[in-house]
Description:
Layout: E1 5-12, E2 16-18, H1 19-30, H2 35-42, E3 48-50, H3 65-91, E4 100-105, H4 114-122, E5 129-134, H5 141-155, E6 159-166, H6 178-186, E7 189-197, E8 210-219, E9 227-232, E10 235-240, H7 244-261, E11 270-275, H8 280-290, H9 298-307, H10 314-325, E12 333-340, E13 344-352
Parallel strand pairs: 4-5, 4-6, 11-12
Antiparallel strand pairs: 1-7, 2-3, 6-7, 8-13, 9-10, 12-13
Helix pairs in contact: 1-2, 2-6, 3-4, 7-8, 9-10
Amino acid sequence: xxxxxxxxxxxxxxxxxxxxxxxxxxxxxxxxxxxxxxxxxxxxxxxxxxxxxxxxxxxxxxxxxxxxxxxxxxxxxxxxxxxxxxxxxxxxxxxxxxxxxxxxxxxxxxxxxxxxxxxxxxxxxxxxxxxxxxxxxxxxxxxxxxxxxxxxxxxxxxxxxxxxxxxxxxxxxxxxxxxxxxxxxxxxxxxxxxxxxxxxxxxxxxxxxxxxxxxxxxxxxxxxxxxxxxxxxxxxxxxxxxxxxxxxxxxxxxxxxxxxxxxxxxxxxxxxxxxxxxxxxxxxxxxxxxxxxxxxxxxxxxxxxxxxxxxxxxxxxxxxxxxxxxxxxxxxxxxxxxxxxxxxxxxxxxxxxxxxx
Length: 357
């Protein structure tokens, strides 16, 4: 049986600021010196973040949505180009080799989209097929990966997936809403891209060499209001209920058990866990519900600390961090897990191929 194999990875980030500098230089005044906001920033697990719009240099909180979307295009194109070019180079492919180019993003609207603009800028064929996955939120990388993998297997052609998010463009006006304080303490900007192929030769470290075995999803419509992303006249506004970890606690164990059980596996059979770091409490809940050892989510915590929550790009960043720090032996399994609006959980089961396979 042929499975789609990840053969290249690339990432790109705008400028970096420390969490401490962002707090003291902007958010402390923005939130009126709120002690609650300070505690949330200090306990977020984030040490540094990236921003195409740096609040220390410009305050976008009063910008209208039109101006924010114009800036989205300006900032997203070079960032996406760098990430995709790095992934293609890692895979040893030319842009013209790509059969499908997919883009996932929930932080901007533009038509023609990033997919067509970047395909042209990168020199992909005018016949390249394109797919845009919009507004699925933090879990978008996994269903997008599944769709791209299906193309690769069916058409026997390479494909590229780019996840690109610019959350810094959506700083909201001052608020005392705890949900807004949490969102502004966590989110960050990034672009991450992967190349998938129907077969692979010599493979390097990191994500390269992992084949997609299966994808699973679970949605709890009764909790749809727990995580929202609303388009307003002042950009996109995050809704993030403190009850989200409790919902994840209810569903993550049964979903993962079902996914692994279909392949004759159990939690101890998984070599590595690439869990989207929606926040420290979410990671604690996942570890507890799955009975994972203390160091199992080190890659997730590291990415959260050094990059923040970069929405859909994050789980790819965690998977790369994980597999570089803890190389997966041939035949070993990795589970990628992410969450988002719906309330929805998505998981991907990946398996390491032999380097000579």
